[in-house]
Amino acid sequence: MNLEKILHDKKFMELNKMHCRKILEYLIHKKINFSIVCNVSCVKFEPELPSNIKAAFSELTVFILAGYTFESLEIDENNLYFEAGFGEENLGSFVTTPLESIAQILLPNETDIRADFCVFINLLATYIVPQNENDFGDDGVNSSMKALLSNPKNRKFKK
Q1: Cα Rg for the chain, rounded, in angstroms?
Q2: Angle at 146 between CA 100 and CA 88, to 5 degrees
């Protein structure tokens, strides 16, 4: 099956990830608000969100990246990082989203809020296997924190 070949083709996966990263970098540089649809099983929250909030997420969840959340955006070779508030209490959490888990990048449609413009599609994101907590390890947390703290506005979160 051709899908199996592509799913295990490192070169194709890297090309797809690079394409995603380049689009995100462009939107961030141009200060254009956007949303991402991602395979939430691969997304990491620090601190972890309460189970009632996580239970409300569907397998593919939309994150709207505007306002403070947009200002907190950081990106590296493998992940998109941001801070967002969740639930009625607006609980803050640092979010780490692997680029390969991003299924779509959407631009808001100013004339019809029901139909955003899709500028990136990654059909393989639904097949990505979540990283094991042990695989993520301290390096992932440290790189996430490093990315967040590299933004001067986020230095207040340094412990």
Answers
A1: 16
A2: 70
Whole-Å CA distances, 10 to 7, 87, 93: 8, 37, 31
Is residue 32 within 8 A of residue 110, CB to CB? The reply is: no
Instruction: Tell me if 64 sits within 8 A of 73, measured CB to CB.
Output: no
Residue in the block written with tokens 């440290």? 142
The DSSP annotation for 66-92 comes to: -HHHHHT-EE-SSEEEEEEEETTTTEE
Q: How far apart are CA 81 and CA 145, in angstroms?
A: 9
Cα 154 from Cα 147, distance rounded (Å) = 10
pLDDT digits (tens, 9 = 90+) for 44-68: 999 999 999 999 999 999 999 999 9
∠ CA(83), CA(39), CA(48), 5° rounding?
Answer: 45
pLDDT above 50 (res 136): no
pTM reported for the whole predicted model: 0.79
d(CA 2, CA 7): 9
Give the E-state strand segments of the chain in sequence order. Answer: 34-39, 44-46, 60-65, 74-75, 79-86, 91-98, 102-107, 117-121
